[in-house]
Amino acid sequence: MAYSRVLKTLIRSTNLGSTTRNFSLVSSQISNHTAKWMQDTSKKSPMELINEVPPIKVEGRIVACEGDNNPALGHPIEFICLDLKKPAVCKYCGLRYVQEHHH
């Protein structure tokens, strides 16, 4: 099973002594949750859902993405440069942005 670098680090940290938290249960919970999610093919994955949202057209060269109008539901502000013709993607939420004059 492939684990992310962060998860490997967390699992390794369990060997450091009794003062660290035990993260060995985390990997089994993540894999069980992921397996349950992948079994239900009737639901779309989060990436499929976000890809259904058309690119957001803006006039400027730089856009500030917050993920949502409500700061409590969004993510840290990411400033995205739109100099390329293809849509730029927010690394937090996957929303795509494009300059309006390119299309």
From TrEMBL:
A Pfam family per the record: zf-CHCC
Residue ranges constituting the Zinc finger CHCC-type domain according to the UniProt record: 60-97
InterPro entries linked: Znf_CHCC
GO annotation (BP), single: mitochondrial electron transport, NADH to ubiquinone
Gene3D superfamilies xref list: q5lls5 like domains (2.60.260.40)
GO CC entries: mitochondrion
Protein name (database record): NADH dehydrogenase [ubiquinone] iron-sulfur protein 6, mitochondrial-like
Native species: Durio zibethinus
Gene this chain is encoded by: LOC111276892
